[in-house]
């Protein structure tokens, strides 16, 4: 409750049922800037394999075009079609509250109960090649460092190069240098991993090290971002992509 509210609560909407839906960040951003009362998208309900209902959510054409209009020709586009996943909330009791501000005073006069959550869902994009590129691009942008301009108080000291360098290594040092794996750029490693998982769903750590030729510790750090590690049979001690990165034909009928 707001510190400026009087302590009153409006419960006129206590019997109203509302849906709590998790959407991707790019979708929430476009919705926030969409014109008032404009169509954001549509739900399509049909029967899937085994008679199970299959729910899809399509972004409206206006929102989809607006979201991709500022992207370059080579940039990945945001997905238009999403799977709508329903979750069970029988073990939870959730409600939505708001603190509307008074037009004159600018303070919250009371707490408003907007409704009780009767259904929980998630809009999940189809993990096709375009979406993989979009996620890789977002991760690349998130890792970009903030550039800082520094003013030097004095001229930096420069050193003249010498004519030759003599480096002596013993046999053990040479062997260690030859066997040491060098780190590739993270984007390159991600690309290799996504391509590998397009061929097979499960891999153990040693196989992925052979495919990417990356140091074990460095590779595991990247794998933890996009994969889950199975600790139970039948795929014990093997990696697989997290649900948001998976794209398997059988997933439609067997999952969700």
From TrEMBL:
GO terms for biological process: transcription elongation by RNA polymerase II; transcription initiation at RNA polymerase II promoter. Pfam families: TFIIF_beta (PF02270), TFIIF_beta_N (PF17683). One of its GO terms (molecular function) is DNA binding. GO terms for cellular component: transcription factor TFIIF complex. It is found in: Nucleus. Residues 16-109 form the TFIIF beta subunit N-terminal domain. Residues 183-246 form the TFIIF beta subunit HTH domain. Keywords: DNA-binding, Nucleus, Transcription, Transcription regulation. Belongs to the TFIIF beta subunit family. PANTHER family: GENERAL TRANSCRIPTION FACTOR IIF SUBUNIT 2 (PTHR10445). This is General transcription factor IIF subunit 2.
